[in-house]
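Hey all, sorry for the wall of text incoming. These are the two entities for the joint prediction.
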Amino acid sequence: MNIVVCVKHVPDAQSERTFNEDNTTDREGVDGLLSELDEYPVEAALQLVDAAQGEVTVLTVGPDQAADAIKKSLQMGAHRGVHVNDAAIHGSDAVATSLILAEAIKKIGDVDLVLTGLASTDGTMSVVPAMLAERLGLPQVTVASELTVEGGKATIRRDGDVASETIEASLPAVVSVTDQINEPRYPSFKGIMAAKKKPVETWSLADLGVDAGSVGLDAAWTTVESFEKRPPRQKGQIVTDEGDGGTKLAQFLSAQKFI
Amino acid sequence: MFELSQDHEDFRRLVREFAEAEIAPHIADWDRKHYFPTELVPKMGELGLFGLVAPEEYGGAGLAEGAFTYQCLAIEELGRVDQSIGITLSAGVGLGINPILTYGSAEQKQQWLPDLVAGRALAGFGLTEPEAGSDAAATRTRARLDGDEWVINGAKAFITNSGTDITSVVTVTAKTGENVDGSPQLSAIMVPAGTPGFTVEPGYEKLGWHVSDTHGLSFDDCRVPAANLLGEQGSGFRQFLKTLDDGRIAISALAVGLAQACLEATTDYAGSRIAFGKPIGANQGVAFPLADLAVMVEASRLLTYKAAWLKDELTAGRRSVREVKQAAAICKVYSTEAAVTATRIATQVFGGNGFMEEFPVARFYRDAKILEIGEGTSEVQRMVIARGLGLPQA
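and here's what came out:
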């Protein structure tokens, strides 16, 4: 089984994050890492090929630093990497990103399953998996907290607020997975050493036949007008119980639309 | 000259990530409860931390060169989050695995190493006795051959990893006779956990290293097969001396981790704690000790990795034992004394909070002292260094 896992290199939420002058996320001046939510599809892919053989290709779209997300995935055990890196991609929105990913997956070819995380931990839009499935003309089975692949079918469990659904799709399919699906492994010392010898290809937009004008900041369907730092947290409100504590709590929760 | 490569840095990042996710959230609780986290050991094994110096046939990394530097990086990064976990690895490899790897027969290696390298088991090494530490020749534990069995009697003290749920074997040094010059003949004998006559005493009440497993051991007509002799009869002392330098460099790496942790915690605190309307770090009275701390971290790290590199070069046959011995003693005495100073600076900057177990620097302070003692006290290191200078001996 050949699996492509789409991963993203994101700014480390633990460190200082900044924006560029064009209001895009600064991806060069900050520490980055493999989006934590993307460790889950990598692990899911590794478990599937551990059980049934095959190859795991990690695919990322991003600047030079994004190679680090591929490296980490290879250290975990993925077999090869594809990095789409082109200056024209800067500022691309989800629509453009899904186009680039779709063309790259077509170029990789012979793919049985495309796995993604639930969302990137920087943009957190969660729309790329659906767009990708649409572009590839494949079934989209998203938000999987369980995944089994058998007899040419992918079966997932999707946990909602009130019910869990079991959904089946024929392969090839695009599946996005949640952080409930598994416990991602750490790379190992041997994994680090082995990763150095694994093939990583770098493709440009031209390699994919994607018109540079159809992606990037200018082609984006949305623009960021401005940004500001999140205000410091407000002090909590203390409710003193004078016999009516329960009522006051209920009023507070109701005002916040929690109840 | 020596330098750390991208592979080293990748590996450092892996161990740091692991320590911050798997150790940091639990360590205050483990420390308070004096709990040894057995479940962590196989996870460390999966990372490959116990197999860095071991060949592939036992599940190790099978590195042609440079293994010890990786080992020190792992110890430093674990030690940066917690010293007890750092020493668990350091002793597990240096004292548990290494003697078997270096002196064991093919059968002994096959029997014990795969589990030890995988982190499914831990091994200890019993040299120190209530009345014999650095003066190993004063060892009182005796072993006599009775038919095809060794009969061991005596006691050992402060033995790391000797009483965990997964301890599989403890190698002990014992007097097995006298040499022609009248000096005691020491041999190393492997005693599997659970052997009748082998008692693991209750854990010590220690000042620090609460999460590390440390016990006294006693042997009362404890019988093990003659084949459990590790290496040659009478070579126990010589074998042990060879492991000393590694152990010193490893403790130095542990000290680097501790000083680094102090530097990070204290820099954060000095930048955010407000007194008299500004962060306390704006005062030179706080900033200068922090500058000193940064110097100590840098110097300790350089001395440690220089020594580790020399050790790797010695293994590759390009350096002498003498050079490594001197470098090991120098880095050990400097880094460990710097670490103790670092914890003193850190707790001082934290003020009253530094005395509270709520903040990790209090644990760091308690954990630091043993570094100046274990694997040869600072005084012993100075003895070694002075001897290396060619000074006349007492």
